[in-house]
Amino acid sequence: MDLSLRQASEKDIPFLLSLRDKTMNQYLEDVGISTTNEEHEKRICYEFAHAKIVELDNEPIGLFKATYNKDLNYWHLVQIQIDPEYQGLKIGRTLINGLIEKAAITSSKIGLSVIKTNPAQQLYLQMGFVIVKKADDEYLMELQA
Question: Is the pTM of this model over 0.90?
Answer without folding.
Answer: yes
